[in-house]
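All the exercises in this workshop are built on plain-text protein records. Instead of coordinates, the fold is spelled out as a row of discrete tokens. Once this layout is familiar, the rest of the handout is easier to follow. The record below serves as our worked example for the rest of this section.
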Amino acid sequence: MTTERYSMKRVAPDGYGAMGALQQFVDASSLPHSLLELVKMRASQINRCAYCLDMHSKDAIALGIPPQKPYLLDAWQEAPCYTERERAALAWTEELTRIAETGASDAAYEAARAHFSERELAELTLAIVAINGWNRIAVSTRMEPGRYQSRLKPESAEAEG
């Protein structure tokens, strides 16, 4: 286990605040928080961000996401519990998180466009940009997982549509 190197929030509050503004946009987007939590967890798995995985697994539980979804997320392509819309979002998440390898392929874009409006795809893309930024902050500064407590409330089944 390592100790936190420094606090980005403390030493660069303006930059940290800019990230916070992006996160506020994502949080206020039209996308269901349950979908966003799966996206955040998948990117955090790829980026090996323990801090963000701790946070977003707790948020997923608080939202009432069925436990099977976070448990099987690393093998989502083989797991039948995800909707086609969730699959499209997870594929787009992987494409953008690994953009140096994938180039954000036309196939992944078309798959995402089949399930998301242009506005929703823009919101999803910004959500992926945000979590990748947070992952890089948390991993590079060695933010310590374990202390986060969710303040989210369960979503209604209608909101997941």
The chain has a mean pLDDT of 93.
